[in-house]
Amino acid sequence: MPRADARPGPVRPGTEMVTHPLDETIDPENFTPRLLALLSNALVWRESHELRRRFGLGTNDWRVVSALALRPGASATEVSDFIGVNKAVVSKSVTTLTAHELIVLVDGPRGSRPMYLTTTGAQMHRDMLPVSLSGQDIILGGMTPEQITSLNMLLRGMIDRVRDAGSLRAAPWGEESPAAQRA
Questions:
Q1: Digit-coded pLDDT (tens) for 41-70
Q2: Given CA atoms 88, 82, 117, 48 in this order, what sign does their dihedral have?
Q3: Which SS3 state, helix, strand or coil, does residue 12 take?
Q4: Residue 116 has pLDDT above 80, yes or no
Q5: Pairing relation of β-strands 103-105 and 115-117?
Q6: What backbone torsions phi and psi does residue 11 show, to the nearest 5 degrees?
């Protein structure tokens, strides 16, 4: 196993390299998880770039502000669960947003730390909201209300199935994974 700090160097004599595409690969133009990731990455990059340019805050900061606009008094753990990111990401944004006086943390029951937008934070939410909504306008442009409803139902179903599946369990060597068996 290579060391984590190993740097690329000359190929050792006798090392065999694969210099052609493998026979069994993912079709990148029809692999749905890849397409969803590309769409998500493009939207996040666009949104983050614009939020940083206009407000000096990033997408994760916006997500926390948006979550607190919907759920005033939520804890960092509750925000983390709601927006689907690691608590460390929320913690970093909370530090940034507190420093900008956009949110406040108060002492809650049993040591909890409910968070609230300040009036400045509420105004920041109003200012940032159009940037986020413009991404939705881009991807839904040209779709009928019925198509949008269907798409959202499909996406929520996919999210539920991924959550229900839990962690990815690899099949033992030599056995096909359940996904490969279905294909």
A1: 999 999 999 999 999 999 999 999 999 999
A2: positive
A3: coil
A4: yes
A5: antiparallel
A6: -70, 135
